[in-house]
């Protein structure tokens, strides 16, 4: 094998979305030479798709808002399974992170008196989302990118080289986090265009790779969301936390089929849009669960008054947390009251003037006009649930974002678990990226600059390269260098097409581990995943390493299969319904599960596609009891409300 190029850095950040860029800025500002590596083009990360806004209790639209209200909303939304210290830091620090963006050049929409405008979103008591129309993610990434360029210009003035202390490797994919003993020592990656392998050596690696939606058939997520960071952490020995919690956003497009799943932002409801069934009923009034009854309007008149007078009226039930709305839509469709294409109706056309729709929701207007030939200023949209976000992720320390059990590994953004509990509130991701991206960069830099540099072993580089080349050595490929493992594979069956395997995986997860889950179906899913894992070892590709999307997908399959098994196994284990995890056979939330985390670990980290026993699979599950919530934080809630969530022993402690 040819020599693999190596470069030395202090901190490597995998991912250039909001979390990755914020981490990189922080690490570089704290003196660490920092490399950012991303699968897509710089500036094209999934974060650019974020529409509605960044949740931060700045109190611009309602001065009663502050971090304690935001904290309470976040815990209610997550059904009290949130890592409470993360939720506390998030609520306290989000306003500073938004203001900081403004000092770096972000142009938010304004209130009449010139402050940053904040809009309503599901589960947030007050208007809280700082936004730029419905293109907030784009502005966030543009601003962070601009900040990176500014830092590079500063470095050029000091060192004569723009990329001496902060460099972006775009269109490069990391396939392994490398270790020296128990410590992280770098990453192994390939350049998508040339297929060239290279190693970035560093004592600290921040994983900021986003989510897992591409394992599901109907999803709002971009092509990058193949769960790479989740799998990289597992393979490096870090556990994943509460992977059963996958958010199905209530409003994705349902028609035409080619765009099924594309998001219809929650701002549509936040700005006054309502949901109706085929009988024309605003059905959400029938779906307000007991835990939320006191906070939501009982009549359409009260709900409509709330938009102008939120202090004396209760919120419309269309603004319940996402899990509630998604389940309600699912029930209406199942009961035969759906729209012609299997969704329900979301209407702004009768709620606000056409010009207001176009001004406040420009992307939605164009999205429906161009993709579905629907004019949303004149007719209702058809919408239904779509896989949107994963609450589960790398188990991290709340303050430092350090991944559990692997010194030098950090995780931030959607790939990290804990912050959102069992269900994320809209807008809380963009603020999460900024708050914990900064913390990850800060602590990764401190760690990297504080100790001895670890060493990357040549044999580990060789193994990572061999693993990456496996798709060329299976039956469909040249067969060269297949070795004993390749021979065993060939004996095991015919070559497999990575695209066909991906489709089968997506169908399996959608049908058997989707929005409503049943024990027998999840068992069936685990059997299917075991079969797919064996077949994925034979996923062969033709051609060479120069821009070869089939090869890229064959490598991504390992990650999607690992992550899917985590989701299915944890979902089978948790015998209750909570947030983004709904069991038909255990339909209620069970207080005994309130303080239980499920941790997934990989049994054989040397081989992500090991042909292990199909019943036991690759993943082992452990239960752990969560830390008790700090008393001063519990005191922010009424005792009566706590009694709905907390186990008896927690309440009386
Ligand atoms: P990303 O922005 O996805 O970045 C991940 C990065 O990792 C990318 O650069 C990718 O190329 C890179 N990467 C992945 N794998 C690898 C690998 N193996 N090697 C190298 N690089 C890799 N949240 C809100 O709070 N408010 C909103 O209004 C909102 N709107 C949304 C609208 C849509 C349509 C969607 C889909 C989501 C929305 N969200 C919103 C959620 C939010 O956008 C995401 O959760 C968030 O952007 C994730 O950011 P991140 O930095 O964690 O990851």
From TrEMBL:
Residues 10-430 form the FAD-dependent oxidoreductase 2 FAD-binding domain. Keywords: Coiled coil, Flavoprotein, Oxidoreductase. Residues 502-600 form the Fumarate reductase/succinate dehydrogenase flavoprotein-like C-terminal domain. InterPro entries: FAD-dep_OxRdtase_2_FAD-bd, FAD/NAD-bd_sf, Fum_R/Succ_DH_flav-like_C_sf, Fum_Rdtase/Succ_DH_flav-like_C, SdhA/FrdA/AprA, Succ_DH/fumarate_Rdtase_cat_sf. Pfam families: FAD_binding_2, Succ_DH_flav_C. Residues 515-542 form a coiled coil. This is Succinate dehydrogenase flavoprotein subunit. It comes from Streptomyces daghestanicus.
């Amino acid at each position: 094998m040819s020599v693999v190029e190596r470069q030395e850095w202090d901190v490597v950040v995998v991912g250039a979305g909001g979390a990755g860029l914020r981490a990189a800025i922080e690490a570089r500002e704290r003196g660490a030479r920092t490399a950012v590596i991303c699968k897509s083009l710089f500036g094209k990360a999934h974060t650019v798709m974020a529409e509605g806004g960044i949740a931060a209790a700045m109190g611009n639209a309602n001065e009663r808002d502050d971090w304690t209200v935001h904290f309470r909303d976040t815990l209610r939304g997550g059904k009290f399974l949130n890592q409470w210290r993360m939720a506390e830091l998030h609520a306290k620090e989000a306003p500073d992170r938004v203001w900081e963006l403004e000092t770096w050049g972000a142009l938010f929409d304004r209130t009449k008196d010139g402050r940053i405008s904040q809009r309503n979103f599901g589960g947030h008591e007050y208007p809280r989302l700082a936004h730029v129309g419905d293109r907030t993610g784009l502005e966030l990434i543009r601003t962070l990118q601009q900040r990176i360029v500014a830092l590079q210009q500063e470095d050029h003035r000091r060192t004569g080289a723009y990329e001496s202390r902060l460099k972006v490797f775009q269109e490069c994919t990391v396939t392994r986090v490398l270790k020296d003993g128990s410590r992280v020592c770098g990453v192994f990656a390939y350049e998508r265009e040339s297929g060239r392998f290279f190693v970035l050596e560093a004592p600290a690696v921040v994983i900021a790779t986003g989510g897992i939606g591409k394992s599901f058939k109907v999803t709002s997520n971009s092509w990058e969301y193949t769960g790479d960071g989740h799998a990289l952490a597992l393979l490096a020995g870090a556990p994943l936390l509460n992977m059963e919690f996958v958010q199905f956003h209530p409003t994705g497009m349902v028609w035409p089929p080619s765009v099924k799943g594309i998001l219809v932002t929650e701002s549509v409801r936040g700005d006054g849009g309502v949901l109706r069934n085929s009988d024309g009923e605003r059905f959400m009034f029938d779906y307000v669960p007991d835990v939320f009854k006191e906070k939501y309007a009982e009549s359409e008149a009260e709900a409509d008054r709330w938009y102008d007078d939120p202090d004396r009226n209760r919120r419309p039930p269309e603004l319940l947390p996402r899990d509630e709305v998604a389940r309600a839509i699912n029930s209406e469709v199942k009961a035969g009251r759906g729209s012609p294409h299997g969704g329900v109706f979301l209407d702004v056309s009768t709620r606000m003037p056409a010009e207001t729709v176009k001004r406040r929701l420009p992307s939605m207007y164009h999205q429906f006009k161009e993709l579905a030939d629907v004019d949303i200023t004149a007719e209702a949209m058809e919408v239904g649930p779509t896989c949107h976000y994963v609450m589960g992720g790398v188990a991290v320390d709340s303050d430092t974002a350090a991944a559990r059990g692997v010194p030098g590994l950090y995780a931030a953004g959607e790939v990290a678990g804990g912050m959102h509990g069992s269900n994320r509130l809209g807008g809380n991701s963009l603020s999460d990226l900024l708050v914990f991206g900064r913390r990850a960069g800060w602590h990764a830099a401190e760690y990297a600059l504080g100790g001895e540099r670890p060493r990357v072993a040549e044999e580990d580089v060789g193994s990572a390269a061999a693993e990456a080349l496996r798709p060329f050595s299976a039956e469909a490929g040249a067969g060269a260098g297949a070795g004993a493992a390749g021979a065993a594979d060939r004996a095991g069956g015919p070559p497999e097409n990575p695209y066909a395997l991906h489709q089968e995986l997506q169908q399996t997860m959608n049908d058997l581990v989707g929005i409503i889950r049943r024990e027998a179906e999840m068992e069936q899913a685990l059997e299917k995943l075991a079969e797919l894992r064996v077949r994925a070892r034979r996923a062969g590709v033709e051609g060479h390493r120069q821009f070869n999307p089939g090869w890229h997908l064959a490598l991504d399959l390992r990650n999607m299969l690992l992550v899917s098994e985590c989701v299915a196994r944890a979902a089978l284990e948790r015998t209750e319904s909570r947030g983004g995890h709904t069991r038909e056979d255990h339909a209620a939330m069970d207080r005994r599960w309130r303080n239980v985390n499920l941790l997934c670990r990989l049994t054989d980290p040397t081989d992500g596609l090991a042909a292990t026993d199909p019943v036991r699979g690759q993943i082992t599950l452990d239960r752990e009891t969560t830390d008790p919530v700090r008393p001063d934080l519990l005191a922010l809630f009424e005792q009566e409300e706590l009694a709905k969530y907390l186990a008896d022993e927690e309440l009386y402690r």
